[in-house]
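Hi R.,

Here's the chain you asked about this morning:
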Amino acid sequence: MERGRLKIFFGYSAGVGKTYAMLKEGHKLKDEGIDVVLGYFEPHERPNTMRLQDGLEALPLKEILYKGIVLHEFDVDAAIKRRPDYILVDELAHTNAKGSKNTKRFLDVLELLNNGINVYTTVNVQHIETLNDIIASKTEVLVNERIPDDIFDLADEIKLIDIEPVDLIERMLQGKIYKKERINLALSNFFKEDNLNFLRELTMRKMADRLAEQKNNGQKPSKYVVLISPSPSSAKNIRVCARMASVSHSSFTALYVETNNSLSNESAFQLKKHMNLVKDLNGDIIVKYSDDVIEAIVDFVRVSGVTNLVIGKTWESIGKKIPFENKIIARLPDIEVLIVPDHQSVRAPKKTIFTYLKNLSKKNCLEKYRLANRTLDGIKAINHSLDLNDIKGTLNEIINILARFFERSVDLKIKGNYYREGYKGEDTSFFNSIEEIEAANWAFNNKMPAGRGTNTLRNIKGIYFPIIYKNEALGVLGLSCQSKKMLVTDKLLFMQIHSTLALILWIIKANSR
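And here is the predicted structure, written out as tokens:
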């Protein structure tokens, strides 16, 4: 099925006319005899905009009961069932109510596109993930609803909706954007003229970057890497690296070095958040296992042809005369290194040296050694399982390996067939339920994880990962979360073995032609 086309009506602020312009183009499509429907529309009680919904077929909204209140959300399943040529879905960055199929509206839009439906939508510049830090710093307003940059970059067409800031403020004063009781508060905060000029300039730059990339045929000459850790400041470093890569139309990778120091639950949670942010920004994640962090970084940078390295400024811990970043620069004199300052006051905890010694216990060292070897053993076992004369036997052997590898029941779906292995007698029939099958199909069609703990169908019993080779989904790996949830370590392990598993499925597919 051919993917639908995405058109984004892009502006620098509420009130510039994005929704109005989208609805006008919806009417134009209808007048041309094209099947177009209104999927979701946020009127904000703006009369001129509200009048434009008249004459357009509108899909019924989905009612969701949350804390005793009935909320109305876009119904993506109803839209797919209706299957129009075009659908208008306002507010791309919206967070769906708890209980919705997808946690974010941009995931709804991706699902529509993957089902061959063309989508018109709207978004403001402050909702783009990589620009979050600099916008918050300038405007002193933190925007919580954000979209990954790759969603914006996915657009086939972006239409800039622009208006002079002084004219936008005049609209505000006339009550055309917000109700009168909200006007003074808005003008004294986000809608200050300086803020609007800054946001407008940022919007123009984003459009210029997009045009430059199109002119350059999408060439990505540079390679950017950001070092990450559980530190909260890593989020800022990731966004800085993603922005730099985006400006030069390059890709970026986040590198995490796993050492013998065990992670607390809080640190593991922070690391997972950082890795999710990297994925949201269309970056790659590499995990290296080493007791020598500097050596692991230097080896990776040299082997991978990295041109730009982003690291955070660290405090000098007890007994360390040379800061970490200075050691990196000394070892990589030909690489451009950007050190991102952390403006938060940071001091070494009083018990740092004792905590460090405690974490270097024999038990923790053995656990990290076991984890690294577990990954290598899993990859070797999967590789050795390949027998093109016995495809069914190969796939059964692979899921047996995966069940032992992840210590949970496994379901592998390929071309309508499934290969299943229970772990320690667990009942695997739940994999046959409608909800689980829906999640597996969603993961396959949208090339993103679905199920337990993800952003889509997150409350079911399993988690489902698409197995992708050369941008083609070859199958779906389902893992049971009935007895225990997926930890950060489990997801890291999957990332490490995914390429091996994908390659074997591709070889099997190629051999069966």
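One quick note: The CA atoms of residues 224 and 308 lie 5 Å apart.

Cheers,
M.
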